[in-house]
Every structure is written in C-alpha cells, then in structure tokens.
Specification:
421 residues; alpha+beta; four-stranded antiparallel β-sheet; two-stranded antiparallel sheet
Length: 421
C-alpha cells in the first residue's frame, strides 16, 4: 500500500452509492457522478496551480493501480513536470521524419501549381535527408544532426543543399505546429555552423543571341522528335520550358496564329496569349505528325504519351555541344531585343510574361501589347531563321508617358541612320 493512501477498500468502494467525492488519501479521490459512475481523480498542485487529474474509470482501474498512477503523477509534479502534458506526449504517436515529410508535403501540395516542384520537393529529401534522418522521430532531431546532413553536400551542390535545408526546416516546423516537437527547427544557428558557399551570378547560362540562328539551323537538321520541336518552339516563342512542354492543341486557335496558355500553367497564374510567327506556327504544324490518339499534348513523350521531362530538352542542348540552359534562350531573346531593337522595355517584358514590379503601374495597366508583341516576335523569328542578315529593323518605340514625349520633343533631332534592306 502507498503511504498516506488506502482508506477505501474494495468493499467500501462497492458499497458507496451517493454522488460526491470520497478521499482515499494523499489527494486521491473516488468520484461518484449523479448517474452512479465511479472514477478516480487526483487533486494535485502543479507549479503552484491546483489541478484535478482523472485516472480512469473505477470499473477498469482497481484501487491499487489508481494509487500507483497517483504516486507517479505526484513524483513528476514534484520535479516540475506537468503530468497531463507527459500523458499527452505518451498518447500522441510521434512520427518519424519520413512520415512527417510525407504528411507535410501532402498538405502543402494542394496550394502548389508547379508539378515539377511538387516532385522535386520530396525527391530531394529522399536523396539527401532520409538516409540519416528518415527513421528518426521528429522530436529527437536536433541541430547537429541536421548540420551533418547538410555538411556533406553544402559546397558540392550548394543550390540543392539550400533547398534541402529549407525543406528539412519546413518538415520540422510542421511537426512543431502539430505538437510533435517542443521547438521549431533551429535552422538559423545551423546555417552559421556551415562554411560560406561560393558566390554565384544568379543567372541562367544563355547562348549569346548572335549564335542562336546557327544553333537553330543545326537543331532543325536533326531527326523529327517531340523534344526537337518543343525546343524549336521554345526558342521562337520565348516561353518557359514547362509552358511549351505542357502545350495542348486545345490552347491553339484554328489558324495557328495565337496560343493561349491558361493561368494554371503560368508562373504568375494569369493567362498568357502568345502571338505565333509564321515560323513558330510551322513548328506546331510539323508537330501534328507526332499526334497521339486521345492525347491533347502537342509535344508528347514518345515512350509514354505524357509531358516531356525538362531534362529531355536540356540533354538535347547539351548533346549539341552548347554550354547553355534551356531557360537561357529567354535571356538570348531578351538580350537581342535590347541590343538589336528599339522596342519598349515593357513590350519585351510582356513577351516574356514577366509581371510588373511596380504595383501601381500594374494596377493601371490594361493592355498586353499583343499587336506590338506580334511584330516583335515575327522580327525575332526572322532573325532566328537567318532572314535578317543584318541588324534587324527596329520597331517603333512606344512612349509610355507624357514625360517621355516631352523629352523626345525637346531633344535635338538626329540624322536618320541608313538601314540595310
């Protein structure tokens, strides 16, 4: 028998019928409800606050067991630990890092638009975090463990390492918010414990625009394939890789002069209308030879009739001996527009479907410059296929404000420059 307890015998407990509380000793009570139900309650002080802790139904918890539970709770309280909090921890099944990552990912993916990002998010954790953290309970993962994971890749693949760091932090913060950890992830202190990564320019490697025509000529000479046509269409339209790889016949008008990419496939989430030059339209016509029955994709993968992978286009570029990325062709177009035309900046940016940084200007902008972009993209296509042997004729620059017009009017007139026809 526990010292100070044991006033209530089995016979007494069975005989008691009147609703109320009956002391067993040292804070333990038998509680009888108005309906006649009997349960054990421990009255205890936790950090100066009086609390009642239920210890179970007396039908299933005999008096000796209730006394042992009460003694254990009082011991925790004496050590400054909340017995109720400890009980909740025991009752809650703490997931492993891998289990938490999958649950966190399943919740977050509902708000993501980029399918590639969705797959990469969990894939990077599988490759770099699971081997060391995957089987550990999330409440046992500390800063040094996370640092050990990152240290192995921090300098070799810096960009990927930063993504792994961010995603580990997200999983542990999700665990904290769901009550599986006592603290958030200590990512700030971990970063301070890692060496400084080499600086990078932050730009995608781009093919210099004067080299684009010869590259496109070599590309066109290759055997007809979905990746070859998709890359050619990407160059001529200056769209992003995912936008061209996911192109669907239902997005094109009948005469192949306009391609409307829906907002759910655009980075900014807004529909983007692409004016198709004759050369770009020809690429889509040639793609009809690759059509797969019951598949709406313009450039389907030959093996599975699904969307081409981004790597398929990158491998094609690398196979042609070019040290550039697929995304870099957008930079090639942008550099050409800046160097070889007088097109207004906002028109070139609209062609790339870039959002306006100036929120006030964005609020009042009601045009997408479709007519001017059609001229610009036709000039770019002519340049790419070698029709423009000399410096491209510059489209008339659109003046975007009264200040620009006033400046133009007051500036001295320049002599017209001869343009080769």
């Amino acid at each position: 028998m526990i010292p100070g307890m044991g006033k209530l015998t089995k016979t007494i407990i069975e005989a008691l019928k009147e609703p109320g509380r009956y002391a067993d000793g040292d804070g333990l009570y038998l509680k009888i409800s108005p309906s006649g139900g009997k349960s054990w309650v421990l009255r205890i002080q936790i950090k100066g606050t009086r609390r009642d802790i239920g210890l179970g139904d007396a039908r299933y918890v005999p008096a000796p067991t209730a006394r042992l539970e009460a003694a254990a709770a009082k011991k925790l309280a004496a050590a400054g630990v909340d017995p109720l909090e400890e009980r909740r921890k025991v009752a809650k099944v703490v997931p492993t890092f891998e289990q938490a990552a999958k649950k966190a990912h399943a919740e977050m993916v509902k708000g993501w638009k980029n399918g590639k990002h969705t797959k990469q998010w969990i894939k990077t954790l599988e490759l770099y975090a699971y081997p060391k953290l995957g089987k550990l309970k999330v409440d046992k993962i500390d800063g040094p463990m996370i640092r050990d994971v990152l240290a192995e890749i921090w300098l070799d693949i810096p960009e990927t390492a930063r993504r792994v760091r961010q995603r580990i932090g997200t999983v542990l913060d999700w665990s904290f918010s769901n009550g599986f950890r006592d603290t958030e992830a200590p990512m700030r202190s971990i970063s301070k414990g890692l060496p400084r990564q080499p600086k990078k320019t932050g730009h995608f490697a781009a093919l210099p625009y004067p080299e684009v025509p010869s590259f496109l000529a070599r590309l066109r000479a290759k055997d007809l394939s979905a990746s070859q046509l998709a890359l050619e269409a990407l160059i001529l339209t200056a769209v992003r890789s995912g936008e061209v790889r996911g192109a669907r016949w239902s997005e094109l008008n009948d005469d192949l002069t306009l391609w409307t990419i829906p907002g759910d496939r655009m980075k900014a989430g807004v529909d983007h209308v692409v004016p198709l030059s004759p050369q770009a339209a020809d690429v889509f016509r040639r793609a009809r030879a690759l059509q797969v029955e019951d598949c709406d994709l313009v450039f389907p993968s030959s093996s599975s009739a699904t969307v081409l992978s981004d790597m398929a286009l990158l491998e094609l570029v690398r196979g042609m001996g070019v040290a550039a990325t697929v995304h870099g062709f957008r930079s090639s177009f942008r550099d050409w527009a800046a160097e070889e035309t007088d097109v207004a900046r906002e028109i070139a940016e609209a062609a790339l479907a870039h959002t306006l940084e100036n929120k006030v200007e964005a609020a009042y902008r009601r045009t997408d410059f479709l007519a001017k972009r059609r001229t610009l993209m036709a000039t770019w296509a002519d340049y790419c296929v070698g029709k423009a042997k000399v410096r491209a004729r510059k489209p008339v620059r659109e003046r975007s404000s009264l200040v620009d017009r006033a400046s133009a009017a007051s500036a001295p007139r320049r002599q017209p420059r001869a343009v080769a026809r």
